[in-house]
């Protein structure tokens, strides 16, 4: 299999954490890809022009991170990151959706502040994204019980989302406002899969 990736993409990190957790690293060739490069051929394989993009051994092209992660979860014989039991599956998917939503908002806020020309930045839009992040962190703090139990995709996604906030939006200083969630993040970030996938500065 081939994974087209960018080392700073939080969605790539999500997939990379799954690869590590499932012990699939030796089965996947990594190809660094800059989706912002106008000369990249990424869109030939993925019409969205985004990473991560996975090319399976049969040549099938998979995107986005959720689809790739669920595909990879079907390639091993251990406990599933996407539970099969309906109630547990919905809980995992809901937590994954929240983590993905935090990532989406954080990426948009970062792009607005760092990539858009200053004259065209929209403060209201950036504030809206940050407000969504704050509400999500508050929700997680109120539902810390969901962060326990058998490891699943929701846990991994939330872990990657919190790590991305530290990486790109450190000025939020969220650990001071949500110390219980911060303690969980510190412990979860000690997993080998999380340590291996820390994005470069």
Compact summary:
With 201 residues, the protein is an alpha+beta fold. It is built from 9 helices and 4 strands; from the N terminus they run βαβαββααααααα.
Considering the chains and any ligands shown, give keywords for the structure:
single chain; 201 residues; alpha+beta; Glutaredoxin; Glutathione S-transferase Yfyf (Class Pi), Chain A, domain 2; 4-stranded mixed β-sheet; 4 strands; 55% helix
Describe the structure.
It is a single chain. This protein has 201 residues and is of the alpha+beta class. It has two domains: 2-73, Glutaredoxin (3-Layer(aba) Sandwich), CATH 3.40.30; 86-196, Glutathione S-transferase Yfyf (Class Pi), Chain A, domain 2, CATH 1.20.1050. The protein is 55% helix and 6% strand. It contains nine helices and four strands, in the order βαβαββααααααα. The chain has a four-stranded mixed beta sheet with strand order 2-1-3-4. α1 packs parallel to α3 (65-73), α1 (10-22) packs across α6 and α4 runs parallel beside α6. The longest helix has 29 residues, at 86-114. The radius of gyration is 17 Å and the shape is globular. The chain starts with a strand and ends in a 5-residue tail after the last helix.
């Amino acid at each position: 299999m081939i994974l087209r990736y960018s080392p700073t993409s939080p969605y790539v990190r999500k997939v990379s954490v799954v690869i590590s957790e499932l012990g699939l690293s030796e089965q996947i060739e990594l190809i660094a890809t800059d989706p912002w490069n106008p000369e990249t051929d990424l869109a030939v394989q993925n019409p969205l022009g985004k990473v991560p993009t996975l090319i399976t051994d049969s040549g099938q092209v998979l995107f986005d991170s959720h689809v790739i992660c669920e595909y990879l979860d079907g390639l091993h014989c251990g406990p599933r990151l996407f539970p099969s039991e309906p109630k547990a599956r919905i809980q995992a998917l809901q937590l994954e959706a929240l983590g993905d939503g935090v990532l989406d908002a954080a990426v948009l806020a970062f792009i607005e502040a760092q990539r858009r020309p200053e004259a065209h930045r929209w403060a209201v839009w950036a504030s809206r994204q940050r407000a969504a992040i704050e509400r999500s962190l508050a929700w997680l703090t109120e539902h810390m019980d969901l962060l326990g139990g058998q490891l699943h995709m929701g846990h991994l996604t939330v872990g990657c989302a919190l790590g991305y906030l530290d990486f790109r939006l450190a000025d939020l200083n969220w650990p001071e406002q949500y110390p219980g969630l911060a303690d969980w993040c510190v412990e979860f970030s000690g997993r080998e899969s999380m340590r291996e996938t820390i994005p470069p500065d």
